[in-house]
Amino acid sequence: MSGLTEEQRAVSEAPVGARQLVIAGPGTGKTHTLVARLAHLVEEEEVFPGAVLALSFSRAAVNELRRRLRASGDDASRIVPVTFDSFATRILANVDPDGEWTTKSFDGRIEAAIGKIAQIGESLDEVKHVVVDELQDLVGVRMRFVRALLKEFDAGFTLLGDPAQGIYDFSLEDEADPEVDGSPALYSWLRETYDGSLVERSLTVNHRARSEVAKEAASLGATVVDAPAEAGERLWSLLRAAPEPPSLKLIGMSPARTAILCRNNGEALWVSRALRRNGVDHRLQRRAIDRAVAPWVARFARSAGPMLLSRGQFETTLANLEGDVPDPDEVWGALRRAARADAGIDVERLVRRLREGIVPDELHATPDSLITVSTVHRAKGLEFDRVLVVRSGWKTPFDDDGARTLFVALSRTIEDLMQLDLPDVGGRLKKHWSDRWLWTGWNGWPTHGVEVRPDDVDVVSPPGTGRADTDPNEVQLRLASEVKPGDSVVIERVRAVVGGGAIYRIDSDSGPLGLMNERFGEDIGKITRGKYPRRIEGVTVDSVRSVGGDPLVADQVGLGPAGAWLVPALSGLGQFE
Q: 438 and 452 in contact (C-beta within 8 Å)?
């Protein structure tokens, strides 16, 4: 592969059995090097693509690596990178397809998969090389998962990360010991376990930063690790010297890919609300668990019905769908992994996987926008032409976590760095014990608004079910063709629930889109102490996603026997009315 530096070439051209630990700072061409490494393994070392296991922490990193591999056009494009969550789910689906793990969280599934790794030892024997990206983000159960994988098979590996960007120790359980389960622990374990065979390399040349401020921020990685207080002050000085936008409206007038980064999600929700009020289109970065399976999946399943389909029948069915559909070559492999049946796919099994949340990463929607509002943690691994960092929430003097987090924030920019005041809240933003952000008065009461999340929407029944004035088929058509990310919706109280709670309906300009789930109504009751608001405004559509449910219910309301349908996913800081 052309265009490699000597550092990158040393990593990419190592023998298949080499055990490499690569320290790669921001902008040093890590993904470019990874693609070259995978190409070398397949083309020069003659490793079968299926014998290379490529894992990464985030879907964003996985999607970018897949895109680059496809663009390379060589046999390495047949390697399928996956997230740790997805690979753990694949292990469980193969070993214990009907086990209780299907009801567990992503962390719970990874924990369950650790105990099953030995049972797939024969399959792991086929793996000749493993690649792990974003190593510094692996703490707790994900760290233990990687350790178990590496111990189970005797193969080479290429592990890439940057200790200066290890900012996920906060996610450890309260009883966890950072010295044992934190980010640095995995580096120590690797050096001890593979002492004598581990080769440590570094990528040091920044190829991304164009402006002087971007270059200076990216250069502080080593100082962040060795002297975090000093690094934090220098990074803070860079931010405080950066310009401020004259107004929020002007942020939306630039063609540059822009990120507005906040210290916590409460601030991100508030910035998003302020941008909406100023007519600035943007995307609010989701939580890692807020996965949205692309709308075409449910539309395809409904059109095909619960049948076994060959590759040709799949392509014909997909081609007959209206609206946006993917290239069959890009999704056929993922469909086969989710619902393999002889040489084709089983649509009934696909819908069951939808219902269980066991869907390959390639089938998830990847929304895009020129402007992204995000916490620093959710922006990990991303890059932007312009980055605005909200000043509030940072504590000086900087401790280890603060310095690393500010380093990640400032090193996301390619060109421009700006600072931003948090728009006036007129009260407080605080985290409720229900794990939702609230907007309240200065004394913590009354509550003016509440965080609305993608998983608050009811998926048990198709939208429109049980309403005499609403046809579920019309709602599905509306969701498929009219509803777009960023559309405003109103959440209306429909009725109280006996024993506590309330049912809320989602209304848009084009008509009703479905119901909020019971948990949302219960949370609203806890937050308001039983004073359920009549309306919640200021909420937008995050995405339209495919879900799986009861085929009998779907058939009874005229959606066919497949058992798949569309629902909206919502986000925002809703205001009580």
A: no
Which residue type is seen at 173? E
Helix (H, G, I), strand (E, B) or coil at 23: strand
Going by C-beta distance under 8 Å and a sequence separation of 6 or more, which residues neighbour residue 324?
295, 296
Q: Of 32, 91, 85, whose CA–CA distance to 57 is shortest?
A: 85
Distances in Å between the alpha carbon of 512 and those of 57, 193, 352, 474?
A: 37, 58, 27, 10
* E-only strand ranges, 66-182: 82-83, 129-132, 156-161
Strands 564-576 and 371-375: unpaired
- pTM of the predicted model over 0.90: yes
C-alpha atoms less than 13 angstroms from C-alpha of 388 in its C-beta half-sphere: 25
**Maximum distance among all Cα pairs of the chain, rounded to whole angstroms:** 72
Task: List residues bridging with 429 in a β-sheet.
Answer: 439
Burial classification of residue 391, based on how many CB atoms lie within 10 Å of its CB (0-12 exposed, 13-18 middle, 19 or more buried): middle
CA distances from 355 to 24, 460, 466 (A): 39, 10, 21
Beta strands in 152-280, from DSSP E residues, in sequence order: 156-161, 198-203, 258-262
> What is the distance between the alpha carbons of residues 342 and 351, in angstroms, rounded to a whole number?
17
Q: Which residues pair with 537 in a beta bridge?
A: 575
Reference 17, options 153, 190, 187; nearest CA is 153
* CA 536 – CA 544 distance, rounded (Å): 20
CA angle 198, 204, 206 (to 5 degrees): 145
Q: What is the DSSP letter of 380?
A: T
SS3 assignment, position 74: coil
Residues paired with 543 in a beta bridge: 569
d(CA 292, CA 323): 18
- Phi and psi torsions of 455, nearest 5°: -90, 15
Are 377 and 288 a contacting pair, CB within 8 Å?
Answer: no
> 153, 163, 201: which is closest to 185 by C-alpha?
163
At 575, give phi and psi (nearest 5°): -105, 130
Length of the chain: 577
Q: Can you tell me whether residue 292 is helix, strand or coil? A: coil
- Match 């390619």 to its residue by tokens: 414
> Which tokens hold the place of 31?
């993904």
Tokens of 207: 């190829």
Pairing of strands 447-452, 564-576: antiparallel
* Bridge partners (DSSP) listed for residue 437: 431
Is 535 strand, coil or helix? Answer: strand
Q: What is the mean pLDDT of each run of 10 residues along the chain (577 residues)?
A: 88 96 94 94 93 87 84 84 88 82 85 86 77 92 92 90 88 64 88 95 94 95 95 97 95 94 96 95 86 95 94 96 91 90 92 89 86 94 94 93 96 96 93 94 93 96 82 95 95 89 94 95 94 96 96 94 96 96
> Is 373 in contact with 260 (CB distance < 8 Å)?
yes
**C-alpha closest to that of 295 among 368, 365, 361:** 365
* Angle (CA) 239 245 248, round 5°: 125
